[in-house]
Amino acid sequence: MVRVLHPAYLSSQARLDEMVISFDSAGEKYGDQDRNELKLFKLGQKTLNVKSFKVPNLLNQVAYRFFRKSKARRSFEHACNLIGKGIGTPHPVAYYEFPDAFLFKRSFYVCEHIDYDLTYRELTEDHNYPDHENILRAFTRFTFKLHENKVEFLDHSPGNTLVKKTGDEYEFFLVDLNRMRFGELSFEDRIRNFSRLSPHKSIVEIMSDEYAKCIGDEKERVFNLMWQYTNEFQAKYWRKQRLKKRFRFWMKQS
Q: Which one of 90, 141, 196, 204 has the fewest CB atoms closer than 10 angstroms to its CB?
């Protein structure tokens, strides 16, 4: 077992070990994950979120064992990096890996659990959500803060930003952190980072208007490029879905 704990949680090692080792039989199931599994555990007065990553395919078992950092490790290291930059994400607690001599097996990422009011997804599904435009604009400023801090969140998609209202202000917290790049972003990189968020033109208009204000550029130029990248992503996404549907049909016929 490989175990790395955040310095603030070193004294809780025994309890954290227990959570991970007993994961299959203990804890409270949370959320609806396709590939991975989330559970909640109590640690004193705090609630911790433990994510169990699915055992990768054979090729990736070799890659993660010898050549690549695991998703759990990347999630932990990226969370520490974000916290250091003052960017919202559930506070990292630990990561665990269970390799054998030649292959990589299970891994776990542990973080503090956040009670939130909504995710970005609700804004794309309900255009009448209270204070809809103000939340979108605040979210856009949050994304600008990411970019200014040289953070490119590659999974910047509707379910991966938690939103918490505090008074009249909104706080944003990134989750599913294993795919990130850190470094300078070009203008095109910045705008492309919005492409997965919403297919709705009205939402893209609001985000592009706010981002143009943040970056000091012409709103028409920002909107045109953001809408172009959005349409390109949507076309690629639906093309992939059609191929999957055909593949499943062929498999049933064979």
A: 141
